[in-house]
UniProtKB/TrEMBL annotation:
Residues 43-186, 220-362 form the SIS domain. The chain holds residues 237 to 608 of 608 of the full protein. One of its GO terms (molecular function) is carbohydrate derivative binding. It comes from Cereibacter azotoformans. One of its GO terms (biological process) is protein N-linked glycosylation. One of its GO terms (cellular component) is cytosol. This is Glutamine--fructose-6-phosphate aminotransferase [isomerizing].
Length: 372
């Protein structure tokens, strides 16, 4: 299963950079497995669970895997109209939540060994849920204990900061959403074919985003690396991505970073904003852009310096006012997480490089957290 992705750095100075650059290939591999029949339909081992009758999906995971789950929740609710609860695995079982009859629990884990995620899985099984696992290591404990294991196909991920496993989880979740939506009747056959066309554009979109690396590296070194604090904001699908941007940054650069839903800023976090705290705005020109635009202007009115991650249309509208603007590829709104994920990974990586931290082995962190 490790396939073409070897656990060696090759010409790259760090595993993290190598793994970031592997993402177009990983996405192509994920697509190959999800569209293996080649007949315009999504193939998925979880199809037998009868999704038309599932009352609710519970997703439990930790860290970056949990943030992939948050993106998945939005896709599943919007596209498949499936109610989804997202749970931080370390909190889930201690709350002793009731789980619905006929419900399904999905755990997401790169390693398949995270203690809290495994415990969440066992809790769900005891509560009579059918279980699914989205796991990168196929021989792991979680992959063995779930009813149905779905592989993420990312190959070995060595850098402590998760990158290619995250985008692979996202792509699997979107493929899964299409399958569930077909069964629930919110997409028809023609829609499914169109979705597969959209999914097929993801490797190219990621490759186009990687082409923005020099601009992202310059902003990271010049604007973000000298800061002690940073704020990431986004709305809709970009909210979990803002959380992921802040997580990546703090993990490998040790800059204090917070991610916020942009509309929540005025309820407290905007008090932190001044000219010394860069605000990274994940701002594709989607249906929420107008709302985000006014949030960004509120930040700028308080001397906030906004680093805008946007597309050509967003740059035309807000680029002049922003402190720095990085123009990313245009794509349809549901695919934006792939573009922004790669941008925030590169931003964190180049910031860490400028600060001289130990990128692949950041302090205090382990790749796989097998203790509570
Ligand atoms: C991400 O960059 C992290 N190092 C961390 O949040 C990780 O995603 C989390 O510990 C979950 O790990 P898992 O996917 O192996 O379960």
């Amino acid at each position: 299963e490790a396939g073409d992705f070897l656990a060696e750095k090759g010409p790259y100075p760090h595993f993290m950079l190598k793994e970031i650059h592997e993402q177009p290939g990983v996405a192509a591999r994920v697509l190959g497995s999800w569209t293996a029949r080649g007949d315009g339909t999504v193939t998925c081992d979880a199809a037998g669970l009868g999704w038309a009758r599932v009352p609710r999906l519970t997703i439990a995971a930790c860290g970056t895997a949990c943030l992939a789950g948050q993106v998945g929740k939005i896709w599943l609710e919007r596209i498949a109209r499936l109610p989804v609860e997202i749970e931080i695995a370390s909190e889930f079982r201690y709350r002793e939540p009731p789980l619905p009859e006929g419900g399904v629990t999905l755990v997401i884990s790169q390693s398949g060994e995270t203690a809290d995620t495994l415990a969440a899985l066992r809790y769900a099984k005891e509560a009579g849920q059918r279980t699914l696992g989205l796991v990168n290591v196929p021989t792991s404990t979680i992959a063995r204990e779930v009813d149905v294991a779905l592989a993420t196909h990312a190959g070995p991920e060595i850098g402590v900061a998760s990158t290619k496993a995250f985008t692979a989880q996202l792509l699997c979740l979107l493929g899964f959403t299409v399958m569930v939506a077909r069964q629930r009747g919110t997409l028809d056959e023609a829609d499914e074919r169109r979705w597969i066309g959209a999914l097929s554009s993801v490797p190219r979109l990621i490759a186009e985003t990687l082409a923005a690396e020099p601009a992202i590296a310059a902003a990271a070194a010049g604007a973000l690396a000298p800061a002690s604090d940073a704020i990431f904001v986004g709305r809709g699908l970009m909210y979990p991505l803002a959380l992921e941007g802040a997580l990546k940054l703090k993990e490998i650069t040790y800059i204090h970073a917070e991610g916020h839903a942009a509309g929540e800023l005025k309820h407290g976090p905007i008090a932190l904003v001044d000219a010394t705290v860069p605000v990274v705005a994940l701002a594709p020109s989607d249906g929420l852009f107008d709302k985000l635009d006014s949030n960004i202007r509120e930040i700028m009115a308080r001397d906030g310096r906004v680093l805008l991650l946007t597309d050509a249309a967003g740059a035309a509208r807000l680029g002049e006012a922003a402190w720095r603007t990085i123009v990313l590829p245009d794509c349809e709104p549901f695919l934006q997480p792939f573009v922004q994920a790669v941008a925030i990974q590169l931003l964190a990586y180049h910031c860490a490089l400028a600060r001289g931290t130990d990128i692949d082995q950041p302090r205090n962190l382990a790749k796989s957290v097998t203790v509570e």
